[in-house]
Amino acid sequence: MSSARPLDHCVLPTADLAVARQRLASLGFSVAPNGLHPFGTENCCVYFADGTFLEPLAVADAVKTGSASARGNVFTARDSAFRYRLGEEGFSALVFGTEDADLDHREFTRAGVSAGRILNFSRAFVDAAGRSDMASFKLAFAADLRAPDAFFFTCERVNAPAVDRSALQKHKNGVKRIKAIVLQAPEPLEFATFLQHVVGSEPEELSEGLRFAAANGDVLVRHSAKPRGLPKPGLRLTDIVFGVETLANAESALAAAAIPYAASDGCLTVPPAVGQGATFVFEALSSD
After folding, report:
1. Which of 133, 166, 199 is the last residue of a domain?
2. What DSSP state is assigned to residue 276?
3. Are residues 141 and 204 in the same domain?
4. How far is CA 265 from CA 133, 205, 223, 284, in A?
5. For residues 172 and 194, what is the distance between their CA atoms, to the nearest angstrom?
6. What is the pLDDT of residues 80-122, one digit of tens each?
């Protein structure tokens, strides 16, 4: 890799988009109208000013998703596998932006980390004012067999919708972007080579694990406890760190909705809940 890839979005499986929408709104996020995929899944995204976003994902048509998986659709197959193993709520995939998914697929294949064939698809996008356009994407997938509960892909935006997303990028909690993603593994070094291929940067060893510098944030892999008498849990996606204008904005939004949080080391931490599959951490951008 000649340069690091940028963080693009996080896939957060959920059982019910209405519940996810309510939870995210209570956390101070503006949530986009539902978007339906042609292969049976549906989302209600949260967009940020730097182009990163959250993708809460539900199954709208199980027959379609099952058929798509049988035909080799990696996206639906991995989503189904995650739900089967870990339940309907969680943080299943980390996505990076790309301008050439075909090149990424060749690189993943050459490195032995490809999770399957490229996926091309389009879906309707509706902005906050109800204006609609078609969005088209091309996805290249990567996975490690030792980490069945976390997968990764790059996303090429083949056709960006000609709609105004600015209203959806303004949030009561003041979030501007995704600053970092946190993963956990009993032995982070076991996944260093794999993640180097995915992120496109070399790991930096830290006392708590590894750091990979993406083009617009960090990917952190921290040590997790080894369960006694059980197989290693592999690599898990656990936390999303958001950059906010000020912590006061985020604290005000959480207090207004009576959402419990922990405040320490210049950040606010909200544990996972139904409709919020990851730990959410709010940090002031001034701490960059």
Report:
1. 166
2. B
3. no
4. 43, 21, 19, 11
5. 37
6. 999 999 999 999 999 999 999 999 999 999 999 999 999 999 8
